[in-house]
Design a protein that fits this description.
Blueprint (H helix, E strand, L loop, with lengths): L2 H11 L4 H8 L3 H9 L6 H11 L14 H13 L4 E6 L2 E6 L6 H19 L5 H10 L7
Antiparallel strand pairs: 1-2
Helix pairs in contact: 1-3, 1-7, 2-3, 6-7
């Protein structure tokens, strides 16, 4: 998903129009439209202003360019190298990703994964809407929650 798509999704989840978001950051509707359609890319400061206005993290608006299995594996390798303790594990004939609890950053990752699982469960059983889930995803970590 592109940065523009992410901005549009977060704006709609926040219940704002392009005009309203533009006013919140001191820009016009046409510039927001240009960002959302990908005709222009916001600079770092503007992206931060958009994130602040929408109550989300900048990271949630950035395109991570995960377009292939190799891209995803590179993220896993980076997480492994950074001490998050993720590793492939065989369970019967299935391979899954597990977190080694002895890794330096494993406790924080496990807490974050638990919060994600709680939100997914709430979405599946109707306690939160798609919109509320999108808002949670975009704001996760914005208040120091990691």
């Amino acid at each position: 998903m592109s940065t523009g798509d992410r901005i549009r999704q977060a704006r709609k989840a926040a219940g704002l129009t392009q005009v309203e978001l533009g006013k919140m950051i001191g820009k016009g509707k046409s510039l927001i439209w240009n960002y959302e359609t990908g005709y222009r890319m916001p600079d770092r400061q503007t992206l931060q202003e958009i994130a602040d206005a929408l109550g989300v993290t900048v990271q949630s608006l950035e395109d991570r360019h995960l377009d292939s299995v190799q891209d995803v594996l590179e993220v896993f390798f980076q997480m492994e190298e950074a001490g998050f303790g993720i590793e492939p594990v065989r369970i019967g004939s299935t391979v899954t990703i597990a977190v080694n609890p002895d890794a330096p950053h494993a406790p924080k990752l496990e807490m974050a994964l638990e919060k994600w699982a709680e939100q997914k469960d709430a979405l599946k059983d109707g306690r939160v809407s798609e919109c509320e889930y999108a808002i949670w995803r975009g704001s996760f970590g914005a208040d120091g929650e990691e």
